[in-house]
Structures are given as C-alpha cells and as structure tokens.
User: Fold these one by one.
Assistant:
Number 1:
Amino acid sequence: MFTDPIADYLTRIRNGIMANHKVVEIPASNLKKEITKILYDKGYILSYKFEDKGYQGNIKIALKYHPVSKVPAIKKIQKISKPGLRKYADNRNLPRVLNGLGIAIISTSKGVMSDKDARANKVGGEVLCYVY
C-alpha cells in the first residue's frame, strides 16, 4: 500500500525516462488512467495500454523520445499537491507552466483535466502535477 499513489506513478515515469526505458508498467487506478490519457493527448507519451488482469490491473506506458537525438518528450514531471499539503486553485488562479508551454494536471469536480481545459470550462480544483 502506497501513501501517495500519484507520486509513485510520476516517479515510475521519471525513473523510466532517466534509465531510457521504452515501456514503463504501473499499477492502475481510475485517476492514473485519466492522467495517462491527458499525457497521451498532449503528446508527452507515445502510447498506453490498460491491462485488466486480476483485481487492479496495470498501465503500460510507451515513453516518447526524439527519433534522432533520443531526448525525452518529458523534461520534468513534478508533483505539486501532496498528502500533507494539498494545493488548490480556483478558475482565476490556475497555474501556467512555463508560460503556457507545459501543462498542469488539475483534478476538478468535472474530472481530471489540463489547466487549459479547466480554464475553458471555468472550473478549479486540486493541482496534481506539472509536466514540461
């Protein structure tokens, strides 16, 4: 049992990038699946696959690298809201990561979405992580 499963998810991706792995396997949950879909839609990962084996299942994430220089698409992935100190933002104070070049993943009342989508829907929520 993990204290912070989202931090474990982000750390597994970060470690996979640092070790130049092509695929990372992570225990699944509904929140992790939504974050994975956002990372794929925004172009930070190459592909993903949800495997429903047993009780929990797994997420297989294919990490994305530049074809020639082998530079990863994710430069930094950083957890913001922690179990001991939650970070919330309303729709007027949503963070802008690298002046709009990166994304912040927000858990809102309308589901998990990027900061740009949250601004468009005029909702705030818990700031989970920054990706750039």
Note: The helical segments are 5-18, 30-41, 115-121.
Number 2:
Amino acid sequence: MFELFVDIVADALVDTIKLLPFLFLTYFVMEWLEHKTGSRTQAMIRRAGKAGPLLGGILGIFPQCGFSVAASNLYAGGLITAGALAAVFLSTSDEMLPIFLSEAVSASAIIKILLVKMVLAVISGFVLDFLYHKVIRKEIRYKNIHSMCESEHCKCEEGIFQSTIRHTLQITLFIFLITLLLNVVIAGIGEQQLATLVQNVPVLGEVVAALIGLIPNCAASVVITELYVQGVIGAGPMMAGLLSGAGMGMLILFRMNKKHPKHNLGILAFVYVSAVFWGILIDVLGITFR
C-alpha cells in the first residue's frame, strides 16, 4: 500500500512538473504585456482575437496539455476569446501522440488524426465565437490583465519576474493537489474498469468516451488511445474522447476564471457536446483512420 501511494505521489509530481515551463512562460508573457506594452499592444491582441480559434487549433495539436493550461490563463486574463479557448481544448490530446508513436501506429494514420482534430477544433471554435457574439450578442470579454492579478492577490507591483514566480507557484500547487487526488481516485477505480465503460455502441460509445475524456488526468487519454490501438473501440468514440480531453486546462479555467462560472460551464458544455457530435459524425461517415 505504501509503495502504491509513493507511485501515485510520484506520478502527480511528474505530471505537474511537465506543466511548469508552460505556466512560467504564460505568466511571464502576460506580466510583460501588463507592465511593458500598455494598452496599445493589448488593443492589437484584441483586434487579432477573431482569428483566435485558428491559432488555438494549430497550437493545440502539440502533445501534452500545457497549451490548454496556458490558454485557460490567457482567457482568464482577457486576451483570447471563448472560441479560441475551446479550439485549444478540442485540439489538444495529452498523451495520444506519445502512445501512438510507442505503439508504432503508421505516420499517415497519426497525421490524419491530428489534422482532423485540428480542423474540427478550429470549426468548433469559430462556431462558439459566432454563437456567443452574433446570436447571443455578447461582447468579447476583453479586460485588463491586471484585474486577474488583483483577483489572485499576487502583489503584481513587485515586478515582472517576482509576479511570474508567484503566479506559477500558486497554480502549480493547485495542479499538484488536484492531480494527486485524481490519481488516488483512478487507482481505486482501475483503468480497466474505465475501459469497460467505452464500447463500440453507436452514440453511447461517443457519449461515454467524451465523459471519460473530460477527466483532467492523462489516464483518460491513455485509456481512450490504447482502446483504439487495440481495436476495442472505433474512430468515433476515440475521437470523441480525445476531443473532450483538455487535460488540466478545464480545471485551470474554473480556478482562474472563478468570477464567471457560467462562462466556464458554457465552455465545458460546448466542448463536450462538440466532442460527442464530431465522434458520431465520424462513425456515420465510416471514417477509420487506419
């Protein structure tokens, strides 16, 4: 039992440490924008924000969930739109790429899956921005980065480097504690039990796979990817589970954007529904990627 606990803690530490570079760079850029560039550069970012889903979808295809964490912070800081954030969430795949490579999946299949995920993420991101700003007619929620600093009581007047360190340490501790808790829960349930929940059942497979994908832990993407590689599930459930898997990004969104819980829940719901929809469509079209 003690050895199991040590392994769980070690895994949580490794998962957290892997995010440190993304966290530090994200907060450093945000602090630099706040302290050095002023309103002119922030205005430029706002004008370019409508193309955010395209950039978010492209950045998200890189492995690991660091970009989703970075995007959540940028959204909380008022620098990107909800559509751009959703595009990152849908495009990123956590452990998918490393597992595909280790299982000797063909390069053509990997490229197809990555490109399809990116395209679906970009389309979904633009749809969310359209719905939010044209149909619901809400203004883009841009704000001054300093407002997020004040809400976190981070004493940003200390300087760029000091504020960056403070932000990074605060959120790193939060990520470690949540990851540790999730590792304990998943160890208790067992990955095999998670695997049995996803079957090749039309619609139900995508619904359950997307729910598993929402688990903010690399175990979710590992289970989904392994099941697809082994032929247990098809391309539809696989895509649904990987599209909804934003790693720690969703948790960071709720942590850093806590003043707007309805926005957070809306983004969560949109990501989940989009993942299920695209997964079902892939099944209906008979796409296999093999």
Note: The longest helix spans residues 160-189.
